[in-house]
Amino acid sequence: MKKSLSNIPYSVLDLATVIQGKTPADTFKKSADLARHVEDLGYTRYWLAEHHNMISVASSATSVVIGHIAGATKTIRVGSGGIMLPNHSPLVIAEQFGTLESLYPGRIDLGLGRAPGTDQVTAMAIRGEQRLQAAQSFPQDVLKLQAYFSSENSTSSVRAIPGEGLDIPIWILGSSTDSAHLAAALGLPYAFASHFAPAQFLTAIKIYRERFKPSEHLKEPYVLACVNVVAADTDAEANKLATSLYQMFKGVISGKRQLLQAPVDSMDLVWTDYEEEQVNQMLACTFVGSKETVKHDLQQFLDQCGVDEIMASAHIFDHFARLRSYEILSEVFKGI
């Protein structure tokens, strides 16, 4: 059955991006403002991602920022997209998210990833030598986390207080096919990072749907796709705003990361042909333009992949232009 944008939930991924000339403190204030804005616009969830040693990303202490956003809002679901579980012990994450769920009941999501969310040197600084191979135990750590949240764990010698007995939805995140198998085997919802790693997106969600085993958590497969959206009142304005996103990903390709840069009139003098090609590959699931353009292109995307929910990330330099972008996107989903 063909899906329509007006029939699926729409959500936000915020990397707590630090823009040129500003600080993380400024970023957190703007994130809270954005969260209140999208809550009023009908967005379903507001997720933050764990990254480390990245000058433009302020959400390294992800659980803390989730609490900040949940405290600034009233109804929108707030969570992680995601917590990089190999960086932590499952017990500590159970306690942190048990605390969040106790403070903001019925509003907390726990998305889990197996990547370090950083470079290998920083990963070693986070994990220590004893946990260098922690990613290999990701499936077992997810099961441990589920056990800590279960009421049955009350007889265990190690308990998550708070956390035990709380209904905190766990999502498996992926940027390749690996996590698709795990999400399917455990019967958990699956969120794919198509906003920066689109190459295996369609293959991964196909694997997930074909191998999905119903569980007490989920009866049918549920796929969330994260994409980049830069919307404005005109295509020309949106295309200019999007140059901040392109500059950010140029930094990823070149290894020369910067704070989020102001938009430019043309990228021609900013990147090389090689960098442009690489950035365009990473940003294949990016939608830029006016409401009409974004609606047309997003519907084509939905027709192709049939996901159950779309989450949008927007790296836009000007805060009010970012608010406007999410406002336009909400109109796309509402059919206004």
Describe this structure in words.
It contains 12 helices and 9 strands. With 336 residues, the protein is α/β, with parallel strands linked by helices. The chain has one domain (5-236, 285-334): Alpha-Beta Barrel (TIM Barrel). Strand 6 (190-192), helix 7 (201-211) and strand 7 form a beta-alpha-beta unit. The longest helix has 17 residues, at 24-40. The chain is globular and about 65 Å long. The two termini are 23 Å apart. The model has no long low-confidence stretch (mean pLDDT 93).
Reported for the largest beta sheet, the result is: 8 strands, parallel, barrel
What is the global morphology? Answer: globular
Across the major sheet, the strand order is 1-2-3-4-5-6-7-9
Unreliable residue runs: none
Determine the strand fraction and express it as a percent band: 5-15%
Total beta strand runs: 9
CATH architecture: Alpha-Beta Barrel
What's the SSE pattern?
Answer: EHEHEHEHHEHEHEHHHEHEH
Radius of gyration: 19 Å
Mean pLDDT across the residues is 93
Number of domains: 1
Relative helix content: 40-55%
CATH superfamily: Luciferase-like domain
Helical stretch tally: 12
What is the rounded distance between the termini? Answer: 23 Å
CATH fold name = TIM Barrel
Derived structural class: alpha/beta
CATH class division: Alpha Beta
GO cellular component, one term: cytosol
Domain Luciferase-like: 22-308
Organism: Pedobacter frigoris
GO molecular function, one term: oxidoreductase activity, acting on paired donors, with incorporation or reduction of molecular oxygen
